[in-house]
Metalloproteinase inhibitor 2 (Hucho hucho), 102 residues
Amino acid sequence: MFKGPDWDIHAIFTSSSSASCGVTLEINKEYLFTGRLNTDGRMRIAMCDFIQYWEDLNGTQKKSLTQRYQSGCDCTVCDRNYSNITLHHFCSIFTLSHWLNT
């Protein structure tokens, strides 16, 4: 987990079909995704969350996630693309998706 409490994630849940925003994940693949973490250690993901294969991230993205963002960042990650957010304590996850599309 890159942003959030130091809990172990015990299970990841999603709806059973794409019609209800369910996600199909491949076994033995590593992912970077956003989602909702419950206090009991269960995580819920849906189609509208950010989901990307870890191997598809470039070196800069991986280094930022594993090293740079860990060093003193206490911002709140926002999972919406609010272009009018100018406060320094918010980080948009869409900055990362922008990197993936360039």
